[in-house]
Design goal:
heterodimer; A: alpha+beta; Aldehyde Oxidoreductase, domain 4; seven-stranded mixed β-sheet; five-stranded mixed β-sheet; B: alpha+beta; Uridine Diphospho-n-acetylenolpyruvylglucosamine Reductase, domain 2; Uridine Diphospho-n-acetylenolpyruvylglucosamine Reductase, domain 3; Enolase-like, domain 1; 3 domains; four-stranded antiparallel β-sheet; 14 strands; binds flavin-adenine dinucleotide
């Protein structure tokens, strides 16, 4: 409940300026597209301009004749290069359909952006120009972009599958029908989670550098998951793993869009080996919008059953989820990761969940910051506000009546998860105080009474989320191909510096700083003396990379464990050299001291040198201070918090102005408060983006109409209010640091807080929903419809 | 996002620019700030074969006093227009509008001539120049032409400039102290193009509105004036604003795009015009 206590010599709990920043801010970063191995050629990819067609003819020979062009390939030319199709790693149900998917389309294209042909040229411009000379006959096939249309199976995305239904997944707990039959109040809603474009500031890029003498290839990729990429690139190309090294250099944001395995990775690998030359490819922004996964895109049909006094009883959730044209690595699982979060922080006695995955002629969807949890949190938090309105209750009063009281943790939810710890009361009380809730409610009433053209609304979001993906056993039970552990190696070098090797793969979060703090404290070495190695399968043999707010909660704990193993070994060596019993040694500020004789001591650096020299080691002790640790969590951790938003809505223009925003998050113990704050700020901004600004729009022919930043609006600082942030601290019981994870919290919490505020401002005008994004047009139309004017 | 290949010519004088345009015909384009042209080239919507860079033509830069008018060189950037003392003293409305074009980066590169020659109905300056009844000065092989703003914007991204003509200067009238103005710019995100904008220029004397001019941004294929509103206010009192603003969208054909339906645009034009007039006349 208080800020983390830190002693004078520890760094955990304190702000440490980010080690990463000097380099990033002075332009010294190494983005994949800055890597230009000598002799590199450039790859450009011809992308289908039509959403569905048979490739009657693809002729690359005119492109080959263009100046500077070295090679060109059709999908058919490359068909024999693939040992396996592109992978789908999560079999969410037995009947799930996995359509064949190859890096370059062979005979049919299924979305605008599907790869049709590849050109390799001496420079980027020659490659781009040559694409215009590839001759393609697209024989048009019917296009389906709408999920309801797709489910009628009249137009098929994959004719061989015979249906557009990818899967149907169901879950039920408690007596759902009885609870709904007996309910005093039932509120039903349909919310749309619009499709979003992840828009990492650095688009994707790949460089493949062959070492012809050995047959090895180094593949650089702007990815969140170099270890995944190595495994899948080897599966798809048949190349042995020991010949492939994958490096994620500096990576400029991912938000889930780089938690994937993309066609260009095996493609460049195969072509670089064929041509024996280093190859480069980098997306432009418009290409990124077609060829990198999209986020969200769900229709949510919901019903909540409650008593008149506000006690919630049952929750029904029925989703249709747009997969796009193919399954990317985790596509089908994303709405199902959300499935656990629909009950939110509330005590339901019955719950039914259903999700239908649907193929359409659009870019595949996959993980986008929060991955299923923002959608679920939006649904339950919007629904709670609508239920409160139906019951004439204050939305916070309704939540208080139903949330899990802090003394009931651990708590098993109706969705089948055990929440580890939390204190919703404390976070909410603090948030109310910071916002000045009562004053704002008074002002809201005044504006209503005055019929002010600018109305005020207050939005509430009391969220929780599951972090720390994930217990390997749980992943196995749900049909995922891999595990959820994380690995670390910690070494104290001969001259006393600490080298921390982590299997996580940061792309902007500040892991180097956070992990240095953990290691500095555990090893008793200066923060500056810690080096963190990551993102390179050559230097980090084991790892499961970064996504799902897992890096600290799983990876950080592995580092912590490895540090403790190093200290244990150092203690054994020090005891031997100091001729003392291990039990008589205390380890304080990096030194082993014999209790009672303070002059007899050895620093960990001295021990490291002695262990390196290995002149005198106890029996059975191997040289060097080094240890590995692989941590596999037993349970998820559940951060939570209360976000409150006050929004002014101009009823004449539909403009929404966010006046104030308060976020009180409980992410367990905090290692670096500034990094946590950065994650919360960025997360809120991204969630506000979905609430007010962003929407990927397709026309009925399957063209992405919002194909560049001219039409796809992401918020900038000028669109956002000051964020007032604070924290409560309820340590996670499941790990020794008590940490819970913070990477997605802001995004999960903020979208419903903002939309609830907009609706709250307009509810007295008869508005009970505004579709996202709550743009001026959508707000204005909602008011007009409510007042009988038609949209 | 990768433009097609093009040749690049840098010229030092207007004559050289005209010569280059004459030589290459409609394959050539003047490059000013590049902030409208280069995005179109990157999307390969525009594929000129030659770019004629007038960035170093000193004669095209800066503001001078010509008696009743100010003469603004075509290559004067939005930022310079905003800061220029002559503009601020004698035609403050232009400084105020230039200050809300895009963001600081755009204002330091983009030029008043480029914005005018591009003729984008969604741009803030065309509607302003229309309401100011500015004069565009063009130089071509056949000499100099003066074109009234009302005749300059002829269609979607189309102006009265010929293929071989360089827009050299823009002449705006000096406004005396009886003029007041306000620009209501309504955008989807901060620092972006207007969904709709309404510029009110009001000249008052003895408590009545002697003359009102209203320029509308993004309400048609070209910048337009709200003529019915203007007519309703000539000689009227400020009380007439509400009713007059209701006519703001008359005779316009608002475009449809992802940010607004034509109906919503018309509605916004009415609301924003009322607000702009109230602010200017208040
Ligand atoms: C991110 C972004 C945001 C923007 N936001 C806004 C905004 O909010 N409001 C707004 O009004 N504008 C906005 N703009 C446009 C900006 O104002 C442009 O700079 C301006 O419209 C064009 O000016 P330029 O000097 O860049 O012209 P260029 O792009 O160089 O040229 C534009 C066109 O005019 C022609 N041309 C240029 N100068 C001459 C000349 N002297 N004679 C003949 N032809 C000429 C060129 O050949 C070309 O066809 C934005 C631009 C960007 C990139």
């Amino acid at each position: 409940m208080t800020a983390t206590e830190a002693s004078a010599t520890t760094t955990v709990g304190r702000v440490q300026l980010r080690k990463e920043d000097a380099r990033l801010l002075t332009g010294q970063s190494r983005w994949t597209d800055n890597l230009a191995p000598p002799g590199s050629l450039h790859v450009a990819i011809l992308r289908s301009p039509v959403a569905h067609a048979r490739l009657a003819r693809v002729d690359v020979s005119p492109a080959l004749a263009q100046p500077g062009v070295v090679a060109a390939f059709t999908g058919a030319d490359l068909a024999d290069a693939w040992a396996a199709p592109m992978p789908s790693a999560w079999q969410v149900s037995d009947d799930m359909i996995v359509p064949p998917h190859y890096p370059v389309a062979i005979d049919e294209v299924r979305y605008v952006g599907d790869a049709v042909a590849v050109v390799v040229a001496e420079d980027r411009h020659a490659a781009a120009d040559a694409l215009e000379h590839v001759d393609v006959d697209y024989e048009p096939l019917p296009v389906v972009t709408d999920m309801d249309d797709a489910l009628r199976d009249e137009t098929l995305v994959h004719a061989d599958a015979g249906t557009n239904r990818c899967y149907l997944y169901g879950y039920e707990a408690g007596e759902v029908d009885r609870v709904f039959d007996d309910a005093e109040v039932v509120v039903e809603r349909r919310y749309i989670q619009q499709r979003l474009l992840p828009t990492a500031i650095e688009p994707r890029a790949v460089v493949a550098q062959p070492v012809p003498a050995t047959g090895e290839v180094t593949l650089y990729s702007a990815t969140q998951v170099p270890h995944f990429v190595r495994v899948f690139a080897c599966l798809v190309t048949g190349m042995p793993e020991h010949n492939l090294r994958v490096i994620a250099p500096d990576v400029g944001g991912g938000f889930g869009s780089k938690l994937d395995f993309y066609a260009e990775e095996p493609l460049l690998l195969v072509l670089a080996r064929r041509l024996g030359r280093p190859l480069r490819w980098a997306e432009t922004r418009s290409e990124n919008y077609l060829a990198t996964i999209h986020g969200r895109d769900l229709v949510q049909n919901l019903a909540v059953a409650a008593d008149r006094d506000g006690t919630v009883r049952g929750l029904r959730v029925d989703l249709t989820a747009d997969m796009g044209a193919y399954l990317q690595l985790l596509t089908p699982s994303i709405p199902l990761l959300g499935r656990y979060m629909y009950p939110g922080i509330y005590r339901f006695e019955a719950h039914a969940f259903r999700c239908t995955g649907v193929f359409t002629n659009k870019t595949p969807t996959d993980a986008y910051r929060g991955a299923g949890r923002p959608e679920a949190t939006f649904a339950i938090e919007r629904l709670m506000d609508d239920l409160a309105a139906e019951l004439g209750m204050d939305p916070l009063e309704l939540r208080r009546r139903n949330w899990i009281p802090h003394e009931q943790f651990p708590y098993e939810t109706i969705a089948g998860l055990t929440y580890d710890s939390g204190n919703y009361e404390a976070a909410t009380d603090r948030a109310l105080e910071l916002l000045g809730y009562d004053d704002l409610r008074r002002e809201q009433q005044q504006r209503r009474d005055d019929d002010d053209p600018v109305q005020l609304g207050i939005g509430v979001s009391t969220y929780t989320e599951m972090c720390g993906l994930a217990p390997s056993r749980w992943l196995g039970e749900t049909g995922y191909a891999a595990g959820g552990w994380e690995a670390a190696t910690v070494r104290v070098t001969p001259l006393g510096k600490a080298e921390v090797v982590t299997g996580t793969s940061p792309h902007g979060q500040g892991h180097v700083t956070t992990f240095s703090q953990i290691a500095a404290d555990a090893l008793g070495v200066p923060f500056e003396d810690v080096e963190v190695v990551h993102g390179d399968t050559g230097r980090v043999p084991w790892g499961l990379d970064t996504y799902g707010s897992r890096s600290l909660v799983v990876g950080g704990i592995a580092i912590h464990g490895a540090c403790h193993r190093v200290v244990d070994k150092a203690r054994t060596v020090a005891a031997h050299l100091l001729e003392a019993a291990e039990d008589d040694l205390e380890f304080v500020e990096g030194s082993f001291r014999v209790r009672g004789s303070p002059e007899a001591s050895m620093s960990i650096q001295e021990v490291a040198f002695a262990a390196f020299g290995a002149h005198s080691l106890p029996d059975g002790v191997e040289p060097n201070l080094t240890a590995d640790h692989v941590f596999d969590p037993d349970e998820f951790s559940f951060p939570h918090g209360t976000h409150l938003c006050a929004a002014e809505v101009d009823t004449q223009t539909g403009a929404v102005h966010l006046r104030s925003y308060v976020a009180v998050d409980d992410v367990g113990r905090v290692v670096n408060p500034q990094i946590v704050e950065g994650q919360v700020h960025g997360g809120i901004a991204q969630g506000v983006g979905q609430a007010l600004f962003e929407e990927a729009v397709y026309d009925e022919d399957g063209n992405l109409v919002t194909g560049s930043l001219i039409d796809y609006h992401i918020p900038s600082a000028a669109d956002l209010p000051h964020f007032t942030t604070d924290r409560t601290e309820t340590p996670a019981p499941g790990n020794p640091l008590g940490v819970k994870g913070v990477g997605e919290a802001g995004t999960i919490a903020s979208t419903p807080a903002v939309v609830n505020a907009v609706v709250d401002a307009l509810r007295h005008l008869g508005v009970d929903d505004v579709p996202m994004p709550a743009s001026p047009q959508n707000v204005w139309s909602a008011i007009r419809t409510a007042q009988g004017g038609g949209a | 996002m990768i433009p097609a290949a093009f040749d690049y010519v840098r010229v030092d004088s207007v004559e050289e620019a005209i010569g280059a345009l004459a030589e290459h015909g409609d394959e050539a384009k003047i490059l000013a700030g590049g902030h409208s042209l280069l995005p179109l080239m990157k999307l390969r919507f525009a594929m000129p074969e030659v770019l004629v860079d007038v960035g170093r033509v000193a004669a095209l830069k800066g503001v001078s006093d010509a008696g009743d008018e100010l003469v603004i060189g075509a290559m004067t950037t939005h930022h310079q227009v905003t800061r220029d003392p002559l503009v601020r003293d004698h035609c403050g409305v232009l400084a105020d509008v230039a200050a809300v074009v895009g963001d600081a980066q755009v204002r330091h590169r983009g030029t008043i001539g480029g914005a005018t020659a591009h003729g984008d109905a969604a741009g803030d300056l065309p509607a302003t120049l229309l309401a100011l009844e500015a004069t565009m000065v063009a130089h071509g092989r056949s000499g100099l032409r003066e074109i009234a703003a009302a005749d300059f914007f002829v269609g979607h991204l189309t102006t009265a400039l010929g293929d071989d003509e360089v827009l050299t200067e823009i002449r705006v009238p000096k406004l005396d102290a009886d003029w007041a103005w306000h620009y209501e710019k309504f955008s989807r995100v901060a620092q972006a193009w207007a969904i709709v904008g309404s510029l009110a220029l009001v000249r008052r004397s003895n408590g009545t509105i002697e003359q009102a001019r209203v320029g509308l941004t993004h309400m048609d294929a070209v910048p337009v004036r709200a003529s019915a509103t203007e007519a309703a206010l000539a000689g009227a009192s400020a009380e007439a604003i509400t009713a007059a603003a209701e006519q703001a969208a008359e005779a316009t054909s608002p475009p449809e795009d992802l940010s607004a339906t034509p109906e919503f645009r018309a509605h916004l034009a009415r609301v924003l015009t009322r607000r702009a007039l109230e602010a200017a006349a208040g």
